[in-house]
Amino acid sequence: MSSRRFTAEEALLLFFDSDAEEEISEIEDLSDAEDNVIDDPDFQFSDDVEDSEDESAVVSPSDENLGMEQSSSTEGTWASKDGNIKWSTSPHQSRGRLSFSNIIKMTPGPTRFAVTRVDDIQSAFQLFISQPIERIILDMTNLEGRRVFQEKWKSLDQTDLNAYIGILILAGVYRSKGEATSSLWNEENGRPIFQATMSLETFHMISRVIRFDNRDTRVGRRESDELAAIRDAWDKWVEILPLLYNPGPHVTVDERLVPFRGRCPFRQYMPNKPAKYGIKIWAACDAKSSYAWKMQVYTGKPPGGAPEKNQGMRVVLEMSEGLQGHNITCDNFFTSYRLGEELQKRKLTMLGTVRRNKPELPSEILKIQGRPMHSSIFAFTEKATVVSYCPKRNKNVLVMSTMHTDASLSTRDDMKPQMILDYNSTKGGVDNLDKVTATYSCQRKTARWPMAIF
């Protein structure tokens, strides 16, 4: 049976009308893992997060229930373990609500820059894969194609490149990451749109030689930049991301892992991630939509260099550059009292789990022996609030916030602090991005790490 060739418009409509836009499920609730480790490699979500939006289920500090959760032994002030910070067991009345908290000067959603440049599907696509990026790929791919295939190579143009990228995207929409490429082009049970776009031989040729830099000059550039093989195209792409979308009041900063098991000088092993091995990318995402607002590839420590100190703080400050009035939600790898102070200087707040070995914490808030289940202990300074919550006996979760200024508790059976409910509802921006990109992955089997990133 002969296959009908699709027009470009029909192919694009087929892609955008697919089920790729199905709703993302809610993020999971805080686990009871010891020392606040809350990574979820299986991306299992719970419905507890919905309760965080029920403002009627919050007890204010003046309610009688609050006194039941704060034991009499916690009255007064506590010194931090390093002796540099004095924590109070009562909220600072003079602190009030921070004037810059959640006051954003940008309308969440697509920017004016993006809206005024989109007329149709093609112009929307070209916002992300811009002409400078296409020019880099075309020039470097044609250079490599002539080197490998010589006179057999037919130079690619913009139409050819867009067709190749479109096939990758559509294969992701069909959830065909694990499907053999040959089956996509199969005459009997393949998908006609692939056959109508280009031959399987052409697809394999492009996949073999697609490049993002000049391999003849790569060695010299790689001495100072491990990302040299894709640096120019990557930088141009991440520069575009903040120009197209304004995040909402909550931004999640976290790490994500691009699956890859081939040779790569900065490949990471992360046992808590589904893929285990791959390329680590720091990401700042809108907590609600999971739009990747800013990203940075982690290329490891410099050759012969010492491990980076205060890496978590450096990452959050760089990922939040350009934001103002937002709250930054992060996990215990990043959260620290000093980070909260630095973000406040930039008119940003911080909310995150915190490790129990942090020197800025008072020893009193770490004690769990004898504490009843679902009890909470709060500590306050003029700049931050920390809570120790026991989800079960002999287990506690520590959360620090520069956004919250009181000891509000929910009226649910588990009496969770509002700080934890807010953390649960805003922590999943990057995890959700990981989930949907894994579900609709455009990645094909490759031994080259630049293609894994691409």
Q: What is this structure, in a nutshell?
A:
The protein is of the alpha+beta class and 454 residues long. The protein has 2 domains: 1-28 and 109-245, no CATH class; 34-106 and 330-427, no CATH class. Helix content is 32%, strand content 16%.
Write a structural description.
- Residues 25-95 are annotated as: Disordered.
- Residues 123-454 form the PiggyBac transposable element-derived protein domain.
- Residues 68-77 have a biased composition (Polar residues).
- This is PiggyBac transposable element-derived protein domain-containing protein.
- Helices cover 32% and strands 16% of the residues.
- It is α+β, with helices and mostly antiparallel strands and 454 residues long.
- Helix 5 (131-149) runs antiparallel to helix 11.
- It starts with 7 loop residues before the first helix and ends with a helix.
- Helix segment count? 16
How many domains make up the 3D coordinates? 2
State the shape: elongated
β content, as a range? 15-25%
Mean pLDDT: 79
What's the number of extended β-strand segments? 15
Structural class: alpha+beta
Largest sheet features: 9 strands, mixed
Distance between the termini: 35 Å
**Residues in helix, %:** 25-40%
Radius of gyration: 25 Å
Low-pLDDT runs: 1-74
Present the secondary structure layout.
Elements: H1 8-16, E1 58-59, H2 64-69, E2 77-79, E3 86-88, E4 109-110, H3 112-115, H4 121-128, H5 131-149, H6 158-173, H7 181-184, H8 192-197, H9 200-209, H10 218-222, H11 231-244, E5 245-246, E6 250-259, E7 268-269, E8 277-286, E9 292-297, H12 311-319, E10 327-330, H13 337-345, E11 349-353, E12 376-380, E13 385-392, E14 395-401, E15 409-410, H14 418-426, H15 429-439, H16 449-453
Parallel strand pairs: 6-10, 10-11
Antiparallel strand pairs: 1-15, 2-3, 4-5, 6-8, 7-8, 8-9, 11-14, 12-13, 13-14
Helix pairs in contact: 5-11
